[in-house]
Write a structure and sequence with these properties.
The complex is a heterodimer of chains A (about 350) and B (about 110). Chain A is about 45% helix and about 10% strand. Chain A has about 350 residues and is an alpha/beta fold. In chain A, strand 5, helix 9 and strand 6 form a beta-alpha-beta unit. In chain A, helix 1 crosses helix 2 and helix 11 runs parallel beside helix 12. The longest helix of chain A has 27 residues. Chain B has about 110 residues and is mostly helical. Helix content of chain B is about 60%, strand content about 0%. Chain B contains six helices and no strands. The chains are: A alpha/beta (about 350), B mainly alpha (about 110). At the A-B interface, helix 4, helix 6 and helix 12 of A face helix 1, helix 2, helix 5 and helix 6 of B.
Chain lengths: ~350, ~110
Amino acid sequence: MKIMTRMGDSSNVELTKSELRTEFEQGSEYAAKKAKIPVLTENEVDYLVDMFAAPTRIWGVQRGNEVVMTKDGCVNALNSSRMSSGVVAPVNREVGVRLFESMLGFDSMEISHNDYSVKPQRFLKALEMLHVELLMETTIFPLLYGFMPNLGLYYRPDGSFENPSDLMPIGKIDEARKTQEEAGKVCLEDCIEMSDCMVEMGADGIDFDTVASTGDAEFYSVLHACDHVANETGLPVEIGMSAEMVLGFHGQLEYNGKRLAGMWPHQQLQTCEEAGCAIFGPVSNTNTKKTVPWNLGKALTFVKACTEIAKIPVHPNVGMGVGGVPMFETPAVDVVTRCSAAMIEIGHADGL
Amino acid sequence: MHMAHLLASSMGGIRAAGDLVARMQLSKKMRITEAKEYVADKLHVTPFDLSDPTMMRQLREELDIGTITGVPGIAKGLAAKARISQLLDIPINSVEQFKNKTGLHY
């Protein structure tokens, strides 16, 4: 009997039960080998095979095992473009946030600008503060203010700093490192400025999202920003990563004596805990040429390695192209609900 | 995609008690089991009950901590959060800012 599931690009694929099992095992082995962590157990793979073999369109956690949701990208799914799976609804973010609270029943929400990076948001600081202030008066659920540090915007041609990607190919390694350090300082200042101003607006926390998208220098800035926000303002910080491994564009940066380049999710978690982080969001990037079971097996192996040692809540990223979810702008519910439930039942996530 | 996650895994926010559990994760860094136990203890229910919209809809109205549907006279927005702050025995930043701005204290 063939079982219908999907590839990482969301297209349909049929597998036998034996092939399905192999996909989960090989995905898990891939993650285990890369991060030097344990593979999924036989019982856990049994559960996953049964879940994917079931002909039902949707899946869910056992009653009582529900978790809480945190969110990135504000209401971009409502009023942004296809880039954010947005439907360009004529809804502003104040209305959108209220809809996420009341109509969708979200457990928490993040407020941010459509242009989601800290650099453009800093120029709109007063507007951002006002919208947070007003929403804090009209909503009940926790509201975090969020942005992507996005160190890449500080480099030419978008920014004023020399681009390390231009310097490294011509052998200017020291110069490439120096420009990352200098740009990182400005990024850190922006992260702190935008976080600090939300304290007096009443925000319930700060969400640093898509962290380390430009590698270890960005992660370094975020960890120091987190340390400042958590330890000096007392606001909780959520750190959501961008990739399963921190890229070593710089290669020599350390936090508390630990080299940031090459860190895998369970190592990222421990470093974020040291910086005072309240919620950590690990990422496993979806390989579009592999099946969803392969990608989910990989993601669960990374997540389990985090939840087994975590001192803080772990909220894995399960949006488009991460956490086993296909890289497609309208991911299908048959696989999204399975990835969602598996993160909790097998990954033991504290939230999503 | 949000709907898929909500149906599969979510506590349901203010439909049930997901917002309260999320507050404990944020403010005290509690993992899910500990956070649910803490909230359940404060509400005198079981952790299982916290995701039940039938039980929580009624209880939220009785506790006057905000309901998902529009009910005249029930605490909304900041007023609901002030009551949640007392109920869970945690400071909520926006409530503290409101107190500072108005000089109202309790």
